[in-house]
Amino acid sequence: MKKSAFNISFVVMLLCVVASKLNAQAVNPGALQSNPWTVNELLQPGILAKMISSNQKVRIYNIGVVQDIKGAINVGAASKKESLQKFAQAIKTSPKDEMIVVYCGCCPFDKCPNIRPAFQLLKAQKFSKPYLLNLSTNLKTDWISKGYPLAKPEQ
User: Fold this and answer.
1) Does the 35-146 domain belong in CATH 3.30.70.1350?
2) Residue ranges of the domains in the chain?
3) Mean pLDDT over residues 142-153, rounded?
4) pLDDT in tens, 91-130
5) The whole model's pTM is what?
6) Three-state SS for 130?
């Protein structure tokens, strides 16, 4: 009798754990997303800031709705079909071995609707040096608060 009560308790506990995991994924749909980039394709903000300051050649695309980093080309939110098409046009004539950095920075990576479509496009187009700027929290926290270069606002 004690053994069967233990088995029932164990099964109930196991079901509770599974249910809580499923609930966490339902609340946080980003937890189910896979990332098309590797750890080596994440570019640290300080490195890009130094590249910009030293005038190194790098193409930077803002594929979100946040403020532009100095030198970035804003194509709009890549989660929208028109913006993703605009991005595809912008990179169409770029050499496949050119370094291309994309960023959004609207929200943490697991919630961002823009970074995956843009990065998947770079992969599909066979770019050999695609990078995602590692703004894992957001642009304000990971770039602006560190004093890294921003584009001057248009007047």
Assistant:
1) no
2) 1-32, 35-146
3) 93
4) 999 999 999 999 999 999 889 999 999 999 999 999 999 9
5) 0.76
6) strand
